[in-house]
Amino acid sequence: MKYKIDTAINVLVIGDLMIDHYIYGNCNRISPEAPVPVVEIIREQHLLGGAGNVLKNLIAFGCLADIAAVVGEDDNAAIVLSELAASNISGKGIFKDAERCTIIKSRVLVANHQLIRLDKEITKPISYQKEQKVLAYLKEHIKNHHIVLISDYDKGLLTPTLLHGIFTLCREYGIQTIVDPKGADFAKYKGANTIKPNRKEAVAASGINIKDYDSLGLACAKIQEITGCDSVIITMSEDGIAIYDAQGLQIIPTKALDVIDVTGAGDTVLASLGVAIASGNSLYDACNFANHAAAVVVSKVGSATATLPEVEHKFEN
Prior knowledge:
Residues 10-306 form the Carbohydrate kinase PfkB domain. It comes from Mucilaginibacter psychrotolerans. Keywords: Kinase, Transferase. This is D-glycero-beta-D-manno-heptose-7-phosphate kinase. The protein has a single domain, classed as 3-Layer(aba) Sandwich (UDP-N-acetylmuramoyl-L-alanine:D-glutamate ligase), CATH 3.40.1190. It is built from nine helices and 13 strands. The protein has helices at residues 51-61, 75-86, 128-141, 160-173, 199-206, 213-227, 265-278, 283-297, 308-316; strands spanning 10-15, 17-30, 37-50, 64-72, 94-97, 103-110, 113-120, 147-151, 176-180, 194-195, 231-235, 241-245, 248-252. Strands 5-4-1-8-9-10-11-12-13 form a nine-stranded mixed sheet, with helices on both faces. It has a four-stranded mixed sheet with strand order 3-2-6-7.
């Protein structure tokens, strides 16, 4: 194994936190009211999603982790705080906003098949006052972390002003930042150390259709030009992970052989990169570690996580 992981590192996640709500049931009849299936609920489950899934991956690796995010002033906010407390996360970085709702994605599943997903969310940018509250918290606490991971789901938290403040603070304290971006405008991430889009996001941001090695390199160079970042990492599913930095373009082939569910794989890669880079690994070795961690996760159902023993086992095999 060409990597080392220091579980004493402290990682901060900043991003769009949400609840993944699963409703499991049976379906044996059609409603007499409308031509729709009737689901008899057996059980329900509430899990942290979005940036919360990045946090869960960090906890699964056994390192210290915390999160800064905004939720609504509603009953679902209590679920978020309860889930955080269950993982020994204080929730001091969670800010309630009366103008928003806590984002929740409800999925109805019958025999492991999803019938429908219902989303409740407000995606407008947070207010100036809320930006300042979050920044004030970060000014006090960000220095206590070894690396900062930005998990952007484009739900309104990560405004250009807040992002600029985060990157300025991290540069001041010598803390590396890795961004999992969203949307086509990557200019708002100017100041980050590493940008980690998937191939579709990289195409949208660069305006370059990635179809071969040369166009991949051009897209990476364009993203680097737009953001001023030190490195670009593009996840490409079955085509592996691309790394673009001062050494040029490298591609690590995928390690995933048994793909069951790719849900949350990007969150696993972000968490894995953060842990590995903060532990002092090279960018290549960190990407190799993340590649193996993602291979573990996609072999499971749902937004799963990987443990260090599971990743080690994947390396050995």
